[in-house]
Amino acid sequence: MRYENGDKYNGGFYNNMKNGEGVYYYKNGNIYAGEFLNNVRTGNGCFTYKKGKYTYFKGQYLNNLKHGPGMLGFTNGDNVSGIWSSDKLKGGCIVYLKEYKRSFEANIVNGRITFVK
């Protein structure tokens, strides 16, 4: 299905809404492949960013927000894995730093990643 704004969707429909598995292609080049419930990203999915500091988020969504376990990739090759709540990383996480070719334990403190010593 093509939308007037240039976006495109291939996947399940129920009651004229995106439901089940599908792939949504945004006009700006971003792509979401995963589960939908009543037109919103809910369940497992992978969002691929065409531009910006992120390359992908693979994990759980709830009401179009990152919510549950997931991994966020950065354009420099780093990534962070943890539990998300309402689009924000919460509590402990694992940070992979490409420069060091290894992972580190970290915590989220005041919205910032703080490495565990």
Q: What's the level 1 CATH class? A: Mainly Beta
| Whole-number total of structural domains | 1
From N to C, what is the helix and strand string? Answer: EEEEEEEEEE
What is the SS-derived class? mainly beta
CATH superfamily: Histone H3 K4-specific methyltransferase SET7/9 N-terminal domain
As an assembly, this protein is: single chain
| Strand residue percentage | over 45%
Q: What is the third-level CATH name, the topology? A: Histone H3 K4-specific methyltransferase SET7/9 N-terminal domain
Biggest beta sheet summary: 10 strands, antiparallel
Task: Give the strand order, joined by hyphens, for the main sheet.
Answer: 1-2-3-4-5-6-7-8-9-10
The CATH architecture designation is: Single Sheet
Q: What is the CA–CA distance across the termini?
A: 51 Å
Q: How big is the Rg?
A: 16 Å
Number of β-strand runs: 10
The geometry reads as elongated
Q: Considering DSSP H and I runs of 4 or more, what fraction of the residues is helical?
A: under 10%
What is the number of helices? 0
Overall description:
Helices cover 0% and strands 68% of the residues. It is mainly β. The protein has a single domain (8-115), classed as Histone H3 K4-specific methyltransferase SET7/9 N-terminal domain. The termini are far apart. The model has no long low-confidence stretch (mean pLDDT 96).
